Amino acid sequence: MFYREAGQFHTSYIADQAVFPIPVDRIAIAAFAVIAAVAIPMLGNEWFLSTIMLPFLIFALAAIGLNILTGYCGQLSLGTGGFMATGAFAAFKLSTAFPDLHILIVLLLSGLIAALVGIAFGLPSLRIKGFYLAVATLAAQFFLIWMFNKYGWFTNYSASGVISAPPRAIFGDLLVTSSQASLEARYLFALGIVVVLAIAAKNMARSRIGRMWMAIRDMDIAAEIMGIRPLRTKLSAFAFSSFYCGIAGAMWAFLHTGTVEPLAFDVNRSFQILFMVIIGGLGSILGSFFGAAFIVLLPIMLNNAPGWLGYQVPTDLLSHVEFMVFGVLIVFFLIVEPAGFARLWQIGKEKLRRWPFPY
Amino acid sequence: MKAKTLALAAVALTIGVTGTVATAQAEGEQFIPALVYRSGPYAPNGIPFANGFGDYLAMLNARDGGVNGVKIVTEECDTGYNTDRGVECYERLKNNGPTGAAVVNPLSTGITYALIERATADKIPVISMGYGRADASDGRVFPYVFTLPATYWAGADVAIQYIQEQEGGSLKGKKIALVYHDSAYGKEPIATLEALAAEKGYTFLKYPVAHPGLEQKATWLQIGRRDRPDWTLMWGWGVMNSTAIKEAAAVGYPMDKFIGVWWSGAEPDVRPAGDASKGYKSLALHGPGADSKAHADILKSLYDAGKGLAERGAVGEVLYNRGMINAAYMVEGIRTAQARFGNKPLSGEQVQWGLENMEYTEAEIEKDGLAGLISPIRLSCLDHEGGGKARIQQWDGEKWSFITDWYEPNRGMLRPMYEASAAQYAKEQNLTPRACS
Prior knowledge:
heterodimer, A: two-stranded antiparallel sheet, two-stranded antiparallel sheet, 14 helices, 4 strands, B: alpha/beta, seven-stranded mixed β-sheet, two-stranded parallel sheet, 13 strands, globular
């Protein structure tokens, strides 16, 4: 019904190797881009943009970051919150120390700083594997948060140890950070960054470096014998992953909450993003978006649904029902499709392509 | 089948995107959102507060027909003490009612930080009653944030005043320790205690406790066996409080030299520690117990009719009273604003004026039936703290009771500290503080 591929042939290698080789997919993606960039800011109300779309985009970016490391390179990490905090605090320090620095450069540099930190904490990955590596990255998580709490320098000696994102403009006086910027500007700015970085991640995963990561993930000894250097490959995964997480953390502070304390990036945040990656689908960029939507949006939808339908439910009951339904859904989806939403999507797509003559 | 599913999904999406929250709101009602936490790890503390808050407003509607005839409606939203969800709750509720949210109480330091800039942009006043950032007392930089009746810095100063009194007037050579939740909240009093240490000559020791605070053995071994401070203060929250009391008792630290902040001094903090907590002290912003006229009115108009939110026996618990007081301050702000803008539902901007110009005198407190529970406050454009006082209460194993009179925090010393900290915030944010003339 949706896919009519009869008569569509790829006549060059370039066409065959495109990110989206099927024209219908390209049209769908373009339609999504238009909806996200035009329809949502125009139609969505403030609540939808600020508490649904912005966190969704930022978490999706962080999930892509962790997916590079855990999904593609197979290195289990629990340090995501720490790397996000690194990005947030680096962006704060950079933008307050150099007020004239452009916000894009600030974000880029804070991503690079997070990448350096990621490389440092990724060094043990050559020796430690699997769950033991998870514990080593957990150390990064606790160390980084402790450090930002402990040393006043990181917060410009704020008495309460919080950072407040300064307002910065992208060009002219169009502000895109802090609450002084308009919501639409912040949303579109976040959307732009996430789209660019997601496409970059997709292409990385399809190119030489992504294949190296996957080779290491699938069997590191075999990969090494084939001439892939494990240390460099693993560290590059740590670097790119932390870069993405760092930018996500900076966006969390600068575009979403405005003021954050280090505890906003505690170990629960790391778990949250790990669950997004697991539920969305390990080793899938699209899955990161699915996972972020599931973990961030579903509880909010569940909590709001009775109100939309006109039911008055006691607050505490509502919260507890939300926990239970959410938990049941996680278990249900993991039983139905242990490989995550991305795989579910892929199966659905294959079915649609063969419909109505499945074989 | 598929078309039906798609149609359903489309409907759900439309509802979601446009957020058609079609809650019926009668004209002529003032809306106040209630960000509460009845679930999550801190629920034992959040539930009494939410009950007190809701009961006081319901009683006001039943007894007086609202504020000057304007009924107050409130809607609860459960944050679970989680900042992300708190922001969502705020955004969900801020446009309810004919005039939107009049005033909001974030009820968590993390949520307060996240709301300061949002609420300022939306022109909705934030009352962070005895929590949040202390420097927001400077109304020039934070026009929409109110820290009444006292900040953590003021609380720290009151604790030191009390200790000095107990020590016979001099703290020279004494050791005072602070056990604190290692977060923005717990770190608030440090600057004040350090400044006071330089002034009064005591040694200041810091013991951070990692969230959530269940592991304090090492901390209390240091305090009880090695450093042996003369007095110990605590900025703790939730399960950290009762754990600290148990560990302090285990190392034999004298309970009457152990003073918690007002968030470490409620029934859920001391009861789990059992007899060990007898003699433990804490700061108090307001009185415990259910003896006031407002309590009697609540019991009569709500509980006798079976409409109260809590169990009857829980009326008058410390955190229940705090919820009541929080509501009472909001109502007083609305009342002040009504005197200028008329007896009708007011916008956040108008209530901000009311809060800023409010003077809650002894006579009005008496009239509201809260005599003996709180001290009078008076706010201004410059001062969003209002000069509230605090006193010390002690747990006798059964109930909390005051052991001192009200202490006036030394605001001559604190005010310049607020202003310096607020000025730094203004500089980082490129804000021009408004003039308060």
